[in-house]
TrEMBL record:
One Pfam family this sequence matches: Acyltransferase
An example molecular function term from Gene Ontology annotations: 1-acylglycerol-3-phosphate O-acyltransferase activity
Phospholipid/glycerol acyltransferase domain mapped to chain residues: 41-151
Keywords from the named record: Acyltransferase, Transferase
Organism in which the protein naturally occurs: Streptomyces phaeofaciens
Listed name of the protein: 1-acyl-sn-glycerol-3-phosphate acyltransferase
SUPFAM superfamilies in UniProt: Glycerol-3-phosphate (1)-acyltransferase
InterPro entries: Plipid/glycerol_acylTrfase (IPR002123)
GO CC annotations on file: plasma membrane
GO terms classed as biological process: phosphatidic acid biosynthetic process
Length: 215
């Protein structure tokens, strides 16, 4: 069995993330009290900026292990990301190692972070992959929807895909919910139904977050 990501490493990553995110941007965090204080949990995060993952890692009340595309593990960043408990995933195959490590995090009562849309895009949860449903149904872990809403204006950006430095970035945590129907079924039909259920919940949370923040 592959070695599980380090909870201690993830906590160190969270502390680094706090300093970095508050140093470069102006995060406003809403609903953090909704995040269960213990037990397995999945953060389902929309993905429209490159900082979405680090931002959630930094401002969330619990340390988290995100599934991150292997392309991000380049140069010295690779060992650093593994050191702070993040999980490298090959999106072109069924990455059994990543799946095992992700399930291991949940089995140990940790927090798994997922971008259910896969790649960075509109960040509106429109195209969900089945991976999130699989992890939620298989582990029984509740999902907490997370909306990261940053400035989308081009002006003031140093790097494409990042909000302008010192701009406000809102991170809104939603109510935890169960993806499965309670039967524990893991059939293709059950996963499809769970994906549909998740999509509705995430879309509703995003709409609510936009209303709350005026974004």
């Amino acid at each position: 069995m592959s070695e599980l990501p380090s909870p201690k490493g993830a906590e160190i990553g969270r502390r680094i993330g706090v300093g970095l995110m508050y140093g470069l941007w102006r995060p406003r965090v809403l609903g953090a009290w909704k995040v269960p204080a213990s037990g397995p949990l999945i953060f389902a995060v929309n993905h429209s900026h490159n900082i979405d993952g680090p931002m959630v890692i930094g401002v969330a009340p619990r340390a988290s292990h995100f599934l991150v595309k292997k392309e991000a593990f380049v140069g010295p960043l690779g060992p650093f990301m593994e050191g702070v408990g993040q999980i490298k995933v090959d999106r072109d195959t069924t990455d059994r190692t990543a799946i095992t490590r992700a399930l291991g995090v949940l089995e140990n009562g940790g927090v798994l972070g997922i971008f259910p849309e896969g790649t960075r895009g509109e960040g509106d949860f429109a195209a969900l992959r089945a991976g999130l449903a699989y992890f939620a149904v298989r582990s029984g872990a509740p999902i907490v929807p997370v909306a990261v809403l940053g400035s989308t204006e081009r002006r003031g950006r140093l790097i494409k895909g990042l909000p302008p430095l010192r701009s406000r970035v809102d991170v809104v945590f939603g109510d935890p919910f169960e993806a499965g129907d309670g039967s524990g079924r893991r059939t293709r039909k059950a996963l499809d139904e769970a994906t549909e259920r998740i999509q509705k919940q995430l879309a509703a949370h995003l709409e609510n977050a936009r209303r709350l923040t005026g974004r």
